[in-house]
Amino acid sequence: MARIELSAIRKSFDTTDVLRGVDLTIEDGEFVSLVGPSGCGKSTLLRIIAGLEQQGSGEVRIGGEPVDGVRPSQRNLAMVFQSYALYPHLSVFDNIAVPLRMKRLTTLERLPLLGRLLPNRYRVEREIRQEVEHVAAQLELSAFLGRKPGQLSGGQRQRVAVGRAIVRRPVAFLFDEPLSNLDAKLRVHMRAEIAQLHRRLQATFIYVTHDQAEAMTMSGRIAVMIGGELVQVGRPAEVYDNPRDIRVAEFVGSPKINLLPGQIRSDGAVETLGQRIGVATKGIAQPCRVGVRPERIQVGSGPFVGHVVHVENMGAEAFVHLGVEGLATPLLARIGDVRELPMLGSALRFGFAPDAVRLFDAAGKRIEAHAAPAAVRTLEVASV
Amino acid sequence: MSDAVLTPSALALPRPAAVLRRRPLRLRGGAAYALVGPAVVLMLLMLIGPLCGVIALSFTDYQLGAPSFAWIGLANYQDMFADKTFWISLTNTLTYVVVVVPGSVVLGLGVALLIQSGTGLRAFYRTVYFLPVMATLIAMAIVWEFMLHPQFGLVNGLLRSVGLPAHGWLQERDTALLSLCVIGVWQALGFNMVLFLAGLVSIPKALYDAAEIDGAGGAWSQFRLVTWPLLGPVTVFVVVITGIRSFQVFDTVHVLTKGGPSKATEVLIHTMYMEGFEFFRSGYAAALTVVFLVCVLALTLVKARLTARQVHYA
């Protein structure tokens, strides 16, 4: 078990900067997800931690020790790959046993015929058998130990890959989009399994994914990477509720946050779609963007009006797409009670509470705002 | 009661269904035969027919151009097995195969691995090693003849310059077959290299990453854990193809040594050619051909057995 520290990691391929100075500390036993859109450099960062890729500059420390120039196998990390990377010619048993055999047997002892004659090999092989069978039992793979990876389903292959990672008792586990080859149902199931695995092993997990739902549901902290930089690191709820950057706000949460064009007045009041929204900020007068999550939009009453252009009924909840004058894309609102869905084409009033608003400046940085004093709001009503 | 209700319908149902189904089936059968037909006819004409002809011919005393022939049973085979030349040429052919197959497979794999692991000039090296495959072997054989010439050949010149004794490579009994083997390896290497390169490219990169993480960091352990097993199907194919091609060695022998000196390089196909087209003993040559075909067939069966055992790498 170990704490992993990354400081000022930079990496470029040819002329493209993939990582632009990443600093991150992952505590011992923590589950951290690196999440971001594809091409943001998260997989490269993971490969640098694993040692499969060399960083351009910066330092990786595992358990306090710098590991630059240390071979991947010597870093004692385990990695689960997107394609599982199981050896197709080896049985499930042999696949799981590979890291142990590599560590405990010499090159001579691993030879197919000659190795069997060496006395040490028999003893080590017996230990390995016990450990592999123990891990297989934990992952419910005991019945498949003799099979080849080609004869397994996607979920089973996934578990073999996890087994191969667990068996060597590494200091940390690295997951590189391990669920993206599975179908939606199995993915949800494996999400729970991996989270349970983390609780049981209490080991350091670094999990790379482009699926924000995976990151939100499993990890203790998520690190949102965009364009080769860590934009925000924090607990999932905190990142969801309190995004520091408009890109984070847009990436985290499904469906996406609604962004309305707005204007900050010189007195600090905020306007959007021609109406004051009961929010005040200290900033100077400038254009801004007003972010409101779909579940914070109250439908039925409020100062704004939109036309229902589309309704998505998910069964337990529904999303209404509202065409609003002055907005290029429809606004999304969540409706908890699917028995009372608005008609397509009908006009619908909506609004949102001041504390649902997240303000961003033109550069996309977050602007702190608070609910405006009641007096201002009364004034606003009077002026309307 | 439910039985009584069900029975009539159960009896009645299959009949129309069967009538409906039978006709398309027969039609489909006809279409299938029609589609397979051309291939079957061609195979009968080009492969099976001549093969049966050769086997039949091997039981006759037919001579090329003769107006008649007689059935002589196994007499050709008796002659053949009693003939020292046959045994010499069979041994020589097998020696050639045993040297050329491992030589060109191991070297081909080695060159493929080197080219694959290198960074620059890949296309250049690929072309250089593939040149012998594209070149006409007869022309290349003449080049080799000059290189191996006892007096002014390049090989002997090099040997003399470092103070080693020169040889009449193609003229001496000890070295003639070996020289032909070297030319055979040189010629087959490029082809094997290309096949191995294709095999290497198809190995997923993630497997090498996994091997690296699992502790197989060195080149040898990665080769043992990933490369060699995943090249298994390619290797079987390469070995069998090289084997069959080595059995067929003829052009270099015919151009360079004509089976000499004193039958030191006599190989099956060359014997067959001499018997059939120089001495006009077509029946006897047919018997030799049958022996040759048995050897090639054995190799093909080995390949079929091995490929059937290969797992499907998903």
Automatic annotation (TrEMBL), chain A:
Coiled coil: none annotated. Residues 4-252 form the ABC transporter domain. Gene3D superfamilies: 2.40.50.100, Nucleic acid-binding proteins (2.40.50.140), P-loop containing nucleotide triphosphate hydrolases (3.40.50.300). GO terms for cellular component: ATP-binding cassette (ABC) transporter complex, substrate-binding subunit-containing. InterPro entries: AAA+_ATPase, ABC_transporter-like_ATP-bd, ABC_transporter-like_CS, ABC_transpr_MalK/UgpC-like, Mo/tungstate-bd_C_term_dom, NA-bd_OB-fold, P-loop_NTPase, Transp-assoc_OB_typ2. It is found in: Cell inner membrane. PROSITE patterns: ABC_TRANSPORTER_1 (PS00211), ABC_TRANSPORTER_2 (PS50893). One of its GO terms (molecular function) is ATP hydrolysis activity. Its main location: membrane. Keywords: ATP-binding, Nucleotide-binding, Transport. It is a peripheral membrane protein. SMART domains: AAA. Involved in beta-(1-->2)glucan export. Transmembrane domains (TMD) form a pore in the inner membrane and the ATP-binding domain (NBD) is responsible for energy generation. PANTHER family: MALTODEXTRIN IMPORT ATP-BINDING PROTEIN MSMX, OSMOPROTECTIVE COMPOUNDS UPTAKE ATP-BINDING PROTEIN GGTA. Belongs to the ABC transporter superfamily. This is ABC transporter ATP-binding protein. It comes from Rhodopseudomonas palustris. The lineage of its organism: Bacteria, Pseudomonadati, Pseudomonadota, Alphaproteobacteria, Hyphomicrobiales.
